[in-house]
Amino acid sequence: MVCGSLVFSLAVAPSAAAFKTGTYSGTTSQEEAIGFKTTERKVKKLGYRVSAGCEDGTAMEFEVPFDGKTPISEKGRFALTLTEATPVDVTLKITGKVKRRRAHGTITATANQSGTDCYSEVDWSARRQKPAGGDPARYWVGVESSLGRR
Question: Residue 23, SS3?
Fold first, then answer.
């Protein structure tokens, strides 16, 4: 009797991201700066500015220098919601998709201050920037300074 064993080998390559990792920068439909960095599975160091129009004719501006991380799906999609309850109730949500060397998405801002509702929905687009060499933290300093210009 001959005993043998069959060995089945299934080689599974890690799913390659359909986008290039690195630094992305661009603008919103409100002509404001947006920027972030990507790794194979995360968006990090995200920064943007958005303005929301209010029912009483005023507007509220929000600057978002987010230094955390949010996951990117296998299809290149990501979403991040930030909320603040005092002194103004604010919800800022950004959704996006990164594909090849480009990214695009929507920022939604809702706020309520003393019973006055404010809202904005803003489109954004960004492109991967060529590596400049040196310290990658230089990118975040650039986003912060462009957000803090006003």
Answer: strand
Q: What is the CATH number of the domain that holds 128?
A: 2.40.128
Q: Are 78 and 70 in contact (CB under 8 A)?
A: yes
Domain membership of residue 107 (yes or no) is yes
Nearest partner of 101 among 129, 141, 128, judged by Cα: 128
Question: Sorting pLDDT into bands at 50, 70 and 90, what band is 92?
Answer: very high
Q: Is residue 57 part of a domain?
A: yes
* Residue pair 80/43 in contact by the 8 Å Cβ criterion: yes
Q: For 37-78, what is each residue's pLDDT tens digit?
A: 998 899 998 999 999 999 999 999 999 888 889 999 999 999
Domain assignment present for 88 = yes
Q: Check: CB of residue 50 under 8 Å from CB of residue 62.
A: yes
CB-based contact 14:93 (threshold 8 Å): no
Domain count along the chain:
1
Q: Which residue has the higher pLDDT, 14 or 69?
A: 69
- Amino acid of residue 73: S
Domain limits at 81? 22-147
How many Cα neighbours within 13 Å face the side chain of 49?
17
